[in-house]
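Minimal example, chain plus flavin-adenine dinucleotide.
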Amino acid sequence: MKEPIAIIGAGIAGLATAVRLAVAGHAVTVFEASGTFGGKMHQFRLPGGYRFDAGPSLFTLPELVDDLFRLAGRAPTDYFRYQRLDPITNYFFADGTRLTAWADADHFAAEVADKLDAPAAAVAQFLARSGKSYDATAGTFLHKSLHKAGTYFSAETLKAVAALPGLGLTGTMHQRHEQAFADPRLVQLFDRYATYNGSDPYQAPATLSMIPHLEHGIGAFYPEGGIYAIASSLARLAAEFGVQFRYHEPVEEIIVAEGRVTGLRTAQDVYDFGRVVSNMDVVPTYRRLLPTQPAPERTLGQPRSSSALLFYWGIAREFPELDLHNIFFSADYQGEFQAIFRDKTVADDVTVYVNVTSKKTPADAPPGHENWFVMVNVPHDQGQDWEALTQKTRAVVLRKLGQALGTDIGPLIAAEKVWTPPGIAADTSSFGGALYGSSSNNALAAFLRHPNFSGRLEGLYFCGGSVHPGGGIPLCLLSAKIVSSLIDS
Ligand code: FAD
């Protein structure tokens, strides 16, 4: 058995790191503040028979999950199954136009040509270029530590750097989309991909225009049983490899002596560990668990990503016009992002995302009912009056959905739960309730995220959405891969 390692937090990155290290022969203990695994990826039920995935709903790059089972010598499908989505998303524009985003790029381009003012060839060309950008850069910018010299001296990195000027990726995402398309609705559709890592398309660099390739080039997927199945299948695998989970045991201090980690303190005990991986958001890791250590202030001060206001509704009716993923756009997208990132508030007209897992997993709602996960992008918590903003936004959402669907939604709500930025912060320790750690609103954001290791304290590592390579399920899984390779290199 290799040396024992502690992991703080059983979020998706903590689980994936635990699997990797346990499979490599380490004795792994996971300390988790709450009573269960998953972090933002937890599930809950509401009275009346409704199940909800609390956080992530869109799933791409499933092979990163499969990899963990293969690494462990297991058949992925014995633990985790998923289906490819087609269509991916139903769009409802403010002017009443409806559009279906089909998975296949050509099918999608034909739909756009039919419903919007854009030739199919322009859409196909845009998606092809999005794929080219992804292929040229993902290996370097996502799969490796950007903070180790070795990353910069590989043939792959040289290829990525050499490809950058030819990809036409200067300026912002929004500018890139305006250059590509005349129809503002199509610009809005592609701008939306900035929200996949909690950023603002009017500030985020054009390199993020590669995100649509994940859906239309590689595919969007739905796990059997919902997104929670990702966490539960990994928790099962981890337990089979001897990982010890200590629930309801928040870590209160990372103990340090002479520049290296020596253990952890919880309310229950003090534990010796020469290596600790924090899956807790990096800001509270420094502020709460290492209060006497110098912190990387510039890194921790990077602007946060957006957060979300979530309404989980049990709905006493079925809506055939809805699918798993549904977007109801606002009429003023720029105003919406200015409200979030400049004014730190919620606009009067908002884009509403409705996710209905009972479309794929009927047991998630009683017969004839649906489980609506209704999400609005909002700023992270900076002391706003969330009660007032929640009341205001709930009314806007009900009006907007009611208009688009031609039905009064309020009377159909049979069960309800609300999750606000302060709630997300309290339940998962995410700084300000930001969904994706720091935002990607400038071209250097990738380099300004905290590395997967501490440069000052030997034996301290970081995984999860607040550190390199960033937030979202795939990047969290990649952070686990980088951490385990740093530990066992
Ligand atoms: P977290 O999920 O942040 O978990 C951290 C864990 O650490 C928690 O369990 C917490 O209790 C524990 N912890 C914290 N402090 C301590 C301590 N001191 N001691 C012990 N334990 C501690 N991503 C996508 O890919 N697709 C989506 O569609 C998507 N939508 C999202 C929607 C919402 C509403 C939210 C909230 C997130 C969404 N995301 C999405 C982002 C995604 O959920 C996160 O990037 C990812 O789940 C973060 O995982 P993590 O490993 O960083 O840990």
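The mean pLDDT is 94. Residues 169 and 206 are 5 Å apart (CA to CA).
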